[in-house]
Write a structure and sequence with these properties.
The structure is a homodimer of 231-residue chains. With 231 residues, chain A is α+β, with helices and mostly antiparallel strands. Chain A is 26% helix and 26% strand. The first copy, chain A, has one domain: Hotdog Thioesterase (Thiol Ester Dehydrase, Chain A, Roll). Chain A is built from four helices and seven strands. In chain A, a hairpin with a 2-residue loop joins strand 5 and strand 6. Chain A starts with 5 loop residues before the first helix and ends in an 8-residue tail after the last strand. Chains A and B meet through helix 3, helix 4 and strand 4 of A and helix 3, helix 4 and strand 4 of B. Chains A, B: This is Acyl-coenzyme A thioesterase THEM4.
């Protein structure tokens, strides 16, 4: 996550409004945000619960306070970052591709499935997430590394929207209860503090009804200096 | 990682000795530990540096102090855990498979490639790791989530060998410098403290020559009670 995605988010706001349009069609077809190839049709890889929660939340996009961020945006940003930085000192001599760990490498249904919503004014992100069996650690349960990957990636989305180009500096996760494969959880992420180039975030991972706390996390991201080499 | 793998490690020790056997063949064919299907031939997915480092370290297995743990062991343990627990209260009513997040889902060369060594007496694990382009976050660099996944998984291997069946409770990572895709790093993991059912571990991720510190981490794993349900 390497760029402010304000422009794309504004463009997506219209899509979001369409998707949550009321009543004429009592159950509008949701867009699939899980497939890289075709982000438009209803996703077969989302559980009924994930669809319902996402659809309900989409109504909050109507007044413009919340904005939907489909995974396709990550890929666009990654590609944009590649183009932007390929001649910078930061990238000099480095072989890059446009792949991204979180949103790739997994078959539909079996990996990371999620719907993301961003609130610029409140500096918050809400993410509905459904983890497939390829993310298994302990049998039947989400791998701690998959949870960490999810948290780091979603926190980075908020950090990049707050600060621009950033990099993870610390990530502290407390695993309170294990998450069952196939269940839907909700991540609430917020900016706690900004100090110069540093942005401090916190995250909770709860059950869909928010009654069960699965994990808590804090992180620190630091804004990058594009004129400096990283490695 | 759900079982003490002492028996399997003992069996593997002989393999390890064979692989590091001296002189008759000046450069013995190393086993591939990156493929699920065929763990025996030389791995085409390892860089020359990863092969060399692993080969050098294998010599330490000669006196039995260090033991090689190939990824295939993880899969065997996962399957063993499935069989062991499928009728326990812990697993009751839960759909499980034998997949594992870390060691699966990625094509050779492009994902997680690693050689693991365990020292029972010193309660340490050393891991040589090479991250492929599918693990990319920032262009050309390893995703923080991939690093977290690797650290959690390798720490868990030491925890399970120390305590038996465990689960991650806390994971705290400090990212000092980014890791370039394709480079080889070395993880040094040790047990810092044991308190009842708790085991505290620490980890450093350094360059192959150990001069550059990329990341540091601490974690807490807790031994599981097999008579209790987890979720």
């Amino acid at each position: 996550m390497l760029s402010s995605c304000g422009a794309r988010l504004r463009a997506l706001r219209a899509l979001c409004r369409d998707a949550s349009a009321p009543a004429r069609n009592p159950r509008p077809a949701l867009r699939s945000f899980s497939s890289e190839k075709d982000p438009t049709p209803l996703s077969s890889s989302w559980s009924e619960e994930l669809r319902l929660l996402s659809h309900q939340f989409m109504k909050k996009c109507d007044n413009g306070s919340w904005t939907l961020i489909p995974p396709q945006v990550f890929h666009d940003l990654q590609y944009q970052a590649y183009r932007t930085f390929q001649n910078s000192k930061l990238m000099k001599g480095r072989q890059v591709s446009t792949t991204l760990f979180l949103a790739r490498n997994f078959q539909e249904i079996l990996g990371f499935e999620y719907a993301l919503f961003y609130n610029k004014d409140e500096r918050r992100v809400v993410c509905f997430f459904q983890g497939g069996p390829l993310l298994q650690g302990f049998p039947g349960l989400l791998h701690g590394g998959a949870t960490a990957t999810l948290i780091d990636s979603i926190m980075a989305i908020l950090a990049v929207n707050t600060m621009g180009f950033i990099m993870t500096t610390t990530l502290n996760i407390t695993y309170k209860r294990p998450i069952a494969i196939g269940s839907v959880v909700v991540l609430n992420i917020q900016v706690d503090k900004i100090e110069g180039k540093k942005v401090f975030l916190s995250c909770s991972v709860r059950s869909a009804d928010e009654k069960i706390l699965y994990s808590e996390a804090t992180s620190l991201y630091i804004k990058l200096d594009l004129e400096k080499r990283l490695t």
